[in-house]
Model the fold of this input.
Amino acid sequence: QVQLVESGGGLVQPGGSLRLSCTASGFTFSLHWMNWVRQAPGKGLEWVSHISGTGTSTRYVDSVKGRFTISRANAKNTLYLQMNSLKPEDTAVYYCARGGRIRPEPDFGSRGQGTQVTVSS
Done:
């Protein structure tokens, strides 16, 4: 079955950086779009970014453009999210979620346990 395990979160000061990782198993990772989504306290799930199976196509929500970079290492079945210039409003639980083989839309049910990112001074 699909299994996604996120890691790399933590407490960071505003302006700081974190790199999140998501290790995938149970499916052919390189054939699927992959997504990062987040859930801030008291709010619903928000899509953050996606990347194609080959890594050649990426997209971001406007609020993180220029600060976050999504990437993947297919040989390691691992998805990454490099987060720079972090802001308090980036505080959330971050999840990776599998997309389709053709379309990027995330299957929210596939997400893992998440990793907490807290941006605070």
Observations:
- The radius of gyration is 13 Å.
- Strands lie at 3-7, 10-12, 18-25, 34-39, 45-51, 58-60, 68-73, 78-83, 92-98, 115-119.
- The first strand starts at residue 3 and ends at 7.
